[in-house]
Amino acid sequence: MALKKSDLYSALWTACDNLRGGMDASQYKDYVLVLLFVKYVTDKYADKKGALLDVPKGGRYADLVALKGDKEIGDKINKVIGKLADANDLRGVIDVADFNDSDKLGKGKEMVDRLSTLIAIFDRPELDFKGNDAQGDDLLGDAYEYLMRHFATESGKSKGQFYTPAEVSRMMAKVIGISSATSASQTIYDPTCGSGSLLLKAHDEAKNATGKNLTLYGQEMDNATSALAKMNMILHDCPAADIHKDNVLAGPYFKNKDGSLKQFDFCVANPPFSFKAWTNGFDPAHDEFGRFEFGTPPAKNGDMAFLLHILTSLKSTGTAAVNLPHGVLFRGNAEAHIRKQLIQRGYIKGIIGLPENLFYGTSIPACIVVLDKEGAASRKGIFMLDASKGFLKDGNKNRLREQDIHKIVDAFTRELDMAGYSRMVPRKEIEANDFNLNLPRYIDSSEAEDIQDIDGHLNGGIPDRDIDGLERYWKVLPAVRGVLFEPAGRPGYSKLKVPIADIKQAIFGHAEFTTFQKSVAKIFESWAAEVRPQLEGIKKGDKPKELIHEISEVLLEKFRKAKLLDAYDVYQHLMGYWAETMQDDAYILVQDGWKAVLDGKPNTDLIPVDVVVARYFPNEQAVIEKLEADRDQVTQQITELEEEHGGDEGLLVDAKNDKDKITKASIKARLTAIKKESGVEDELAVLGQYLALADQESDASKKAKDAAKKLEDDVAKKYGKLIADEIKELVVDDKWLTRVRESVHGELDRASQTLTTRVRDLAERYASPLPVLSRGVEELTNRVADHLKKMGASWK
Description:
Elements: H1 5-17, H2 25-45, H3 61-65, H4 73-87, H5 102-105, H6 109-122, H7 134-155, H8 166-175, E1 187-190, H9 197-210, E2 215-220, H10 223-235, E3 242-245, E4 264-269, H11 303-312, E5 314-325, H12 327-330, H13 334-344, E6 348-353, E7 366-372, E8 381-386, E9 392-394, E10 397-399, H14 402-414, E11 422-426, H15 427-432, H16 454-459, E12 462-463, H17 464-468, H18 471-476, H19 478-484, E13 485-487, E14 493-496, H20 503-508, H21 511-536, H22 544-559, H23 567-592, E15 597-598, E16 601-602, H24 609-616, H25 618-645, H26 664-674, H27 681-721, H28 724-765, H29 770-790
Parallel strand pairs: 1-2, 1-4, 2-3, 4-5, 6-8
Antiparallel strand pairs: 5-7, 6-7, 8-11, 9-10, 12-14, 13-14, 15-16
């Protein structure tokens, strides 16, 4: 049976939890990822002639599995990994973690149990990396990203810098135009590569767009992290990547034969923010590589130093995206001089402001500086984009959503002028601001102030200015404005024609709104009709990521024509549902096909029971719901009877059992005890009423359970009779498209509700002008004075 991605993720993180105790996530990631590496290379390369890696006997994952429960498991794991390392010149790469470290892994049985459990996590028949397809490297890549994100989250502020969030990495790769790569000989460079996530996302972007495997180069100063990057490259089928350990500013590794810096076609980088020790190991005033010809950055801040190193490392046609703190945009002195030189020479193509708290090493907001040498000579401005408002709160961090990435890339690559978001800023305007690039100087992304109209408060009436501010709605619903508003009797002001309580109905019930709803529904159905063949055509071996990319792009393009709706919001609903449900479904289909029964059991992960019931057994379900409603009605009567007579003086107080509960048995016992007594007629009546209701409840409950059991049996049989076309109809139409359709309808309601709320707010704001309020105060004052007078008091 197919392994759901969500189940794999849960299992992997369970393994990580087993390592908690003597170390934090920045350390136990090394243990988990090494075992993942051994599992991967064993599945992919063992016993294959001419394989890229030699996986010797005694250095395979099966050798680790054989150690489960062994008293010397830690030492023996080290030896297995060492054998694999020796066979492939991977000493110092995969043997960094000590599996026999009792301080971190515990002593004796604790270590044995912990490591045995960890090994078992990857010892699953469905977790097979032999194939280079959807269930192979793709599954691994996503699982790896899941682990890295969680490791970074758990590692804390000072230790999570090894990982650049995947969403940011993807966006950076896209904005440098790497999808337009023309040759496999082109290169991608990251001088501060960490675990290699940025490099790999750039590589994937180029490969997905062009089919070409560009050559990867990276440098990382931390020993354990550089080892992680090397493993990462092999895990992601980029074994030829050249990763070197050293401080890139003091000792750049990649050089030409003449000693000059090697130059690359593309560069992506997330250097350590405001690195204070950047001059350690060399004198920037006498830099042999000429990186600081525009000036020497401040001694205690290395942001500009990394940027200048990257600029020097670009070919004359090269582009780069560098993640830096906002300070590089506006800090003065030496940095101001360098920034001026970069702007005047046209090297800066664009700046993208990001939300705060995206990165694991810091919570401050960052920006992406995009460098482009090829177009520098003719560049007359810088494209600026403020994306700081677009994100999803995810635990204690923020995260770019799919819609945020797409919107950034669309705006940047097309150089779209979007109010409050992005625009091309002429160099003359930048010069007038003394080459200060602080984004708020050029893009006002703040919310428009809701101005209170003094005249409206004094004399009544809703300012026409505020009503005109809803012009985007009136373009779609022009007659609705006339239904809602009429002149207030003085220029520039209107009044509400309908009661405030009727505003929603006046909008939602109008024929123009019905037409608007139908137009949105038509767009959706057009999309559904276009992508249905692709969805129904999913087959074994297909690539789910290619599928979602294709159908989501079609959705986005179609909804760009939908008035009042944000196409990116609609797009996000599909992408969110993909991550939540459709992705698992797609991976089941590309592994097992369109099957309603797997391993003799109904495939309820793919085809939920409620979907089958809704299509084939709606009448039976309605009968069950009626029986349950009848039972609940009787239960409510019993509850009311207990509330009325179950108190200390109630007629049911003596019918409680030793646990202070009323049951059929306790009622019968009380009846038996008092049946021959006199003067208890009222109690007997209540007891009899309770017992009759209890019998009714039992009977109704049995009928509901019997009907539910019969439906359950019928549904199970139905799974076995479903043919492929029926399965496709259930999954594609009843499950997937129905859910996305509901989400689109929700966006429609949200847009309409925004109009309703704004009209109501304006009506309520100006409903009581000052003269009316004054008269009201005067009337209340007079009433109080009269009341006090009647009481013999005087009003002062």
